[in-house]
Structures are given as structure tokens and as C-alpha cells.
Amino acid sequence: MKKQNIAIAILASGSSKRFDGIKLLATIHNQSLLAHSVQTMQNLHCPLFVVLGAHREIISPTLHTNIIINDQHQTGIASSIVVATKELRTYDAILFSLADQPLISAWHYQKILDSYSKHSCDIVATKYTKNKQEIIGNPALFSKNCYEDLLALKGDKGAKAIITSAQYKTHTIKCDEAKYDIDTKEDLALVRQKFSQPLR
């Protein structure tokens, strides 16, 4: 299995308007949501970067890892993907994760890394079912073959069109925990409840 030069980018630049507060500093499992995400990723032993935008003056002092600033965060998630890709384009691949999916374990992220090393593919993405719809998306890893398209992204749309493009060979890994993302206080309460259950 070939050792790949892979960077991890945690996308955490949103203003969390629906949450009514600074979502990433909400506590879960006795630590902030963002700190939990960072700790999970540190177990993978890859270069780790956090993309910050809104509330960065308050959030950045709580971190002890590499930070990438997104000054265009108000335009949507695409801007975070673009700024991270520009910063990390010297790596063979970038694994993008969202800071508000805390139920995803290091085991799943490691499986993404292993699958990329094992299979000859451009993208490794996560597959799950939410509201009876099958979704293929984050967390997702993109090889350098995809960087040009990632840099062309705009607005509040992520990289789903790239993931599903026939242009690239994509490998998907099922992860039911990915459907639990936190947008509201109610979402946070549900995820806190899920933390009391055994995780893979």
C-alpha cells in the first residue's frame, strides 16, 4: 500500500446563523464541537488544517493547530474549499471534513485514507441516507487531479457535482453517522443523546 502525502482540512468558517450562537464552541462530549473534530483528526497523523472565517477572533485562540483564514466565508462553503485547496495544493490529496458532524469516528476517516491508498481512484466520498434520500458527500477526499475543478467552485454549493461527475473515478464508503450534522440547538441535543450510545 503506497504511502500518500495527504492533508486534512476541517471546514469551520460558517456563521452558523440557524444555531443562534457560535456553534463550533458549543460543548459536546466535555469539549467544544471544533475541539472534538480536531482531536478526532489528530488520530490520523496527517497534516491538519482548520479553515476559519466567521467568529475567527474568538475561535482561533482555542485551537493549537494550523489555521487557514477564509475572508469570503459569507459567500458560502465553496469559498472554504477554494481557499483550502489553494493553500494545500502541493499535497497529493486533501481530505475535507465538516466540523459539525461529530458522530463520525476516526475509524471512518482512516477508512477513507486507506481506500485512497488501496484503490486507484480520484475521489473517496461518504455515502449515507438522510430523509429517505441517498447522499454522497462529506467527508470526502480529492486527489490533485480534482484541484482545478475544486478551485472553480463558487457560492453555497459544495463539491457534490465533482464527486458525482463521470470525469472522475469515485469510491464511496457508507457511514450512517454522517447524517447527523448540527445546524440548530435541537440538532445539538440529538447528537448529545447519540453520544451516550456506543460508536463504531
| Residue windows where pLDDT falls under 50 for at least 5 positions | none
Specify the number of helices: 7
SS class? alpha/beta
What share of residues are in beta strands?
25-35%
Please give the share of residues in helix.
Answer: 25-40%
The topology string of helices and strands comes to EEEHEHEHEHEEHHEH
Task: Describe the structure in your own words.
- The protein is an alpha/beta fold.
- It has 7 helices and 9 strands, in the order βββαβαβαβαββααβα.
- The protein has a 7-stranded mixed sheet, with helices on both faces. The chain has a two-stranded antiparallel ribbon with strand order 2-3.
- Strand 7 and strand 8 form a beta hairpin.
- The radius of gyration is 16 Å and the shape is globular.
- The protein starts with 5 loop residues before the first strand and ends in a 6-residue tail after the last helix.
